[in-house]
Known about the structure:
With 459 residues, the chain is an alpha+beta fold. Helix content is 30%, strand content 21%. It has 3 domains: 1-159, Beta-grasp domain (Ubiquitin-like (UB roll)), CATH 3.10.20.30; 175-343, Uridine Diphospho-n-acetylenolpyruvylglucosamine Reductase, domain 3; 344-459, Enolase-like, domain 1 (2-Layer Sandwich), CATH 3.30.390.50. The chain has helices at 22-29, 85-92, 102-115, 121-127, 138-148, 184-192, 205-210, 246-250, 253-258, 260-267, 272-275, 280-286, 294-299, 396-402, 410-424, 435-452, and strands at residues 2-7, 10-15, 48-51, 54-57, 70-72, 177-179, 197-199, 218-221, 231-234, 237-241, 303-308, 311-316, 321-323, 326-327, 334-341, 347-354, 365-374, 377-386, 393-394. The chain has a 5-stranded mixed sheet with strand order 2-1-5-3-4. The protein has a 5-stranded antiparallel sheet with strand order 9-10-15-11-12. A 4-stranded antiparallel sheet has the order 16-17-18-19. It is globular. The termini are far apart. One FE2/S2 (inorganic) cluster (FES) is lined by residues 96-102, 133-136.
Amino acid sequence: MKISLWVNGVRRDLEVPPLKRLLDVLREDLGLVGAKEGCGEGECGACAVILDGRLVNSCLLPAYRAHGRVVRTIEGLGTPESPDPVQSAFVVEGAVQCGYCIPGLVMASRALLDEEASPTRPRIREALAGNLCRCTGYERIIRAVERAGQTPARVCGTEPSPDPASEPEASPGDEVVVHVPGSLREACEMLGRGGVTVIGGATDLGVLLHEEIVAPRAVLDLSRVAELHGVRREEGALVIGAATTYADLLRDPDVARDLPCLHAAVRTVGAPAIQSLGTLGGNLVNGSPGADAVPPLLALGARIRLMSGAGGREVAADAFFTGYRATVRRPDELVAAIIVPLPAAGTRQSFRKAGTRRAQAIAKVNLAACARVQDGALRDVRLAAGSVGPTVLLLRRAMAALEGGRVADLERLAGAVAAAARDEVVPIDDVRSTADYRRAVTGNLVARFVLSLGEAPFL
Length: 459
Ligand SMILES: Cc1cc2nc3c(=O)[nH]c(=O)nc-3n(C[C@H](O)[C@H](O)[C@H](O)COP(=O)(O)OP(=O)(O)OC[C@H]3O[C@@H](n4cnc5c(N)ncnc54)[C@H](O)[C@@H]3O)c2cc1C
Ligand code: FES
Ligand code: FES
């Protein structure tokens, strides 16, 4: 496949296998070996580069996705004679030991500082959460980012603009056919012909492709389908395009204001480089019972809009999953949008996730909860939990135990509702946790939500 991209300000025209990873293109085809391979599956950040201004893990990105885009690597940031302020600050603060992780950490720091000149410590921690360092220790690294924030970045000429509309050109030897449709109608038509694998952000698929667990002959990429991107208001609801990335959701003021439990859940997905690429539609279709963005959709009473060449239909989010990683979606259907009704005024929303660590951790248990207080009683109670069954579960018995309860009786209710929740979940023992722990934590998270209803709003 012929692709053209701007790397560190220079246009590069290349012929590469379409699904070759950007990391390998940079290292093998362009000789830019700053980006490293650590884990190869999006976990460590050693391969991080900046794509159109956003941090991404180049080990997850198929090369064709870089076509028409602007890539910055560590080599384009500074030179030993004229380093970027981030690079200088890492040296001054002694934030480098073996150096393996440093290109990725420097790129993550640069991406943060380009967006926010003087980030707080918690913001720095959040921005670097997807970059692992085994030998330096994070305190020095954080100090380096704080220091770098005091110096404006060097301006290295005018950055080219990305050209997202241009299409990569197929080559006769391509083993994989890549479709990058520009409209929803075209995308549905192509899917209807069969034999194609849909690609959203490739944060789940990228791992499977690399490990050769999937080997598609043709892919259908949704990144250029404008109808599938963004958030808009429509008749008392927010309609979220299925290919909207987490990074875009986090920057959406309506989502932050009206759907704080979804906003909070999205903040916990992976780390910034995963959020730049991963999509809400991908989280749904991937069907993991531990998916973090899904419990809020069930708790908020969202509907999933499916589209095919034959037309569209909508299903309730709590009827979308039929079993472990199984959904009602037919092979010829795309998830086109997620319709989230605007919660009634005064609805309290919460999202909590228990994992091994804050970033890059699949939930041991997660819980999204919504309820409203009216005349001293609880109304519209919805509780949804993940990683406690084959699918994300709506906790119907716990919801019934709480609905209509009095705010004056929260302590008793918390115990009863937690017991109902513990009883109805069906967790398993696996590498991440035990069924007993998951059952106990579900009860605790539910009780915590119930008790919080007597306090000032916390989200
Ligand atoms: C390091 C790392 C950390 C992660 N951390 C988390 C986490 O904390 N929480 C969490 O929930 N997930 C996490 N994930 C998983 C992943 O990021 C999410 O599930 C993400 O939402 C997947 O979206 P995507 O667009 O990248 O999906 P893709 O990988 O592109 O696709 C996933 C599946 O959905 C299908 N698909 C995608 N979009 C559509 C559509 N619109 N219509 C029909 N089919 C579609 C694809 O064919 C594929 O089967 C992590 C992944 C990695 C690599
Ligand atoms: S190599 Fe670890 S995130 Fe890419
Ligand atoms: S400096 Fe060695 S891994 Fe970070």
